[in-house]
Each structure stands twice: as C-alpha cells, then as structure tokens.
Amino acid sequence: MVKHIVMLDFKDENKKENLEKVKTMLEALMESVPTLKSMEVGINFSEEDRAMDLSLYSEFEDKAGLEAYAIHPAHLEVVAFIKTVATASKVSDYTV
C-alpha cells in the first residue's frame, strides 16, 4: 500500500473560498481516478506558525497507481488550479 500526503499553504486573497474549492475538487477525484483507493482532505484549524492550510492524505495499491494518479487529466486539472492559489507545498510518499 502506498500512502501519499500533501500539505499546502494558500495565498491570503480569497483564502477561505479557495480552500473550500480545492477540498471539493480533490474529493471529486475519488469518482474519476480508478487507482485512488481512499482520500481525506482537511482544512487546518491550528494557529501555529508551522501549520499548513490544507492537508491531503490518499492511498494507492502500489507506486504504479500513484504514478497513474499523478498524470490523470482530472488530477492535472486540480493541480493547475492549486498552482494559481497556493504559495507552498510539501509532499511525502511511502509504502507500508
């Protein structure tokens, strides 16, 4: 099983609306990306300086499934929007 974690920081302009839109867009990928086995998307409530605005946790059967997700047209559409509203991102991929 492959775990894929992404954390994002967003621009201040329209932050609340953009967070909700990205959350909705990401969750919709469950219906369109066959290799995506599960997903959780959370909007941060911590006020710590080191906190990120949004976290994504997803699971795939294997690395090939993650690679297929990465190039899936629906995922690329979400990534394109994220690039217009995010200021930073971090990722961690691992197997269990």
UniProtKB/TrEMBL annotation:
Positions of transmembrane segments: none
InterPro entries per UniProt: Dabb (IPR013097), Dimeric_a/b-barrel (IPR011008)
Domain Stress-response A/B barrel: 2-94
One Pfam family, short name: Dabb
Family annotation (SMART domains): Dabb (SM00886)
Protein name per Swiss-Prot or TrEMBL: Stress responsive alpha-beta barrel domain protein Dabb
